[in-house]
Amino acid sequence: MEVREPYAKYLPPQFKRTEAGDIPIDWVDKPIGEMAEVTSGGTPSRKMAAYWDGDIPWVTTAELEVGQVTEAVQHITAAGLQNSAAKWLPAGTLLIALYGQGKTRGKCAVLRIAATTNQACAGIKLKESVEGEFVRHNLAQRYEYIRSLSNGGSQENLSGEIVKKIRVGMPSTRAEQRAIAEALNDADALIDSLEQLLTKKRQMKQGAMQELLTGKRRLPGFSDSWISCLWGDVIDDCSSGATPLRSHPEYYRGSIRWVSSGELNYNVIEETLEHISAEALEKTNLKIHPAGTFLMAITGLEAAGTRGACGMIGKPAATNQSCMAIYPSSKLLTAYLFHFYVYKGDELALRYCQGTKQQSYTAALVRVLPIEYPESTDEQLAIAQVLSDIDAEITALESRLTKTLALKQAMAQALLTGRIRIPLAPQEPAAPVLFPGASEAEGMLGSGPARAQESTP
To answer: 414 CB contacts (<8 Å, ≥6 apart)?
Structure first.
């Protein structure tokens, strides 16, 4: 028996309850098997070299993550196609991952090219009366539900028969299906453009660090010499913190910010996950570091994500023993040191950290780390400002992308269930808007695909 999605107790007026969920009364509810041919592929023998590295695209479930397949990582030959269960699927075919590692099972994508697939991909070739993009968005939105339909056993799998029974609620006219799909495609286009711009900005930041933090490119107006030395030559003090006893819960009921290394993410730390009391500060001999103090992670540096991690204190705070606070001398600006370590931290950790069970820094090791910097603190400040400005642009783009992803999710939930209807052109009448707020939907969607605009650096 098909597993049904949970329903809300309240059914709005002008809606009906179906196995595909609550949908408008003028919509239809159909299983995929009635509106599409469902097929699967195959894998040519890996032992036969003549079956591989040909010119026939061959898609696996790993390529379904981004929602559309524009090229294949692997290719097979005509002999590989002939001697396996692989078969050609036309562009526009929907693919669902029947099984795979991690969160792969249940992922849906559309083929933008003609291609073959392995046996872990179900190909859904829809009839011409159905808008494929609408079905793709519908299935993507119901990802968790589709995963719940899996067969049990040592490895949970979907099957072609399960896919055929998945019911889709949709407008009865293809025109309305297309209008919904186009609105969601526009949102995807904006998300894609933001992601591309974010990638470009990050690459720009990397290039700027490579040039500005090594002296390969000088900012206008600066010509003083650069200095290569050890950290010990340009820092006055460095010290790590401590962890108050967990057996004293009252130590963690205070208002003093307390930073752990997990909070170091190349960022300015304005608030901390935990706070400690004045008694904990005194009993543990901790120091409150002022705003602007540079922190670096000093333990567990063999792990990606921790290796090279650093941050700046935005408001006065103490730290645990996995964070080291660095106080530069008057020769070196903290802001410059921060950007230098963002650029070099990963490399330095790999070269200089020591330990058998866990790679770590000590105060002595920190003092022998190499550094290059301009002798002029004005030039240090100018370099730090350029890099901070790029960081601000990246942060703004990340925030915009997060908000856009949330908006797309809300749009998909409203449009794919008919809670908001898109008015069609007069020659293609649709059912009346069932809920107040259609004008809000139009405002969200705009008149066409929005594009992210790159700001001038």
So the answer is: 420, 441
Sign of torsion over alpha carbons 63, 65, 66, 69: positive
Give the list of residues 6+ apart from residue 161 with CB closer than 8 angstroms, or none.
none
Return the sign of the alpha-carbon dihedral for residues 87, 91, 94, 95. Answer: positive
Per DSSP bridges, beta strands 256-259 and 68-69 are unpaired
Using DSSP, state whether 259 is helix, strand or coil. Answer: strand
The end-to-end CA distance of the chain, in Å, is: 58
User: How far is it, in rounded angstroms, from Cα 121 to Cα 322?
Assistant: 46
Q: In order of start, what are the domains of the chain with their CATH numbers? A: 1-171 (3.90.220.20), 173-223+376-457 (1.10.287), 226-375 (3.90.220.20)
Q: For residue 62, give Cα distances in angstroms to 95, 97, 106, 152, 308.
A: 12, 9, 12, 22, 30
What would the two tokens of residue 302 be?
A: 């063999």
Sign of CA dihedral 295, 298, 300, 304: positive
CA 100 vs CA 131, 196, 448: distances in Å? 27, 28, 36
Burial code of 378-412, b = ≥16 C-beta within 10 A, e = fewer?
ebbebbbebbeebbebbeebeeebeebeeebeebb
Indicate the angle between helix axes 174-212 and 334-352, nearest 10 degrees: 90
Q: What is the pLDDT along the chain (457 residues), one digit of tens a residue?
A: 344 455 456 788 899 999 999 999 999 999 999 999 999 999 999 999 999 999 999 999 999 988 899 999 999 999 999 999 999 999 999 999 999 778 899 999 999 999 999 999 999 999 989 999 999 999 999 999 999 998 865 568 999 999 999 999 999 999 999 999 999 999 999 999 999 999 999 999 999 999 999 999 999 999 999 999 999 999 999 999 999 999 999 999 999 999 999 999 999 999 999 999 999 999 999 999 999 999 999 998 877 778 889 999 999 999 999 999 999 999 999 999 999 999 999 999 999 999 877 889 999 999 999 999 999 999 999 999 999 999 999 999 999 999 999 999 999 999 999 999 998 876 555 444 343 333 444 444 444 444 444 444 3
Q: Which residues of 87-121 are buried (b: 16+ CB within 10 A; e: fewer)?
A: eebeeebbbbbbbbeeebbbbbbbbebebbbbbbb
Q: How far apart are CA 373 and CA 379, in angstroms?
A: 9
Contact 300, 261 (CB under 8 A): yes
d(CA 198, CA 203): 9
Q: What's the DSSP call for residue 110?
A: E
- Non-local (6+) Cβ contacts of 397 within 8 A are 194, 197, 198, 201, 452
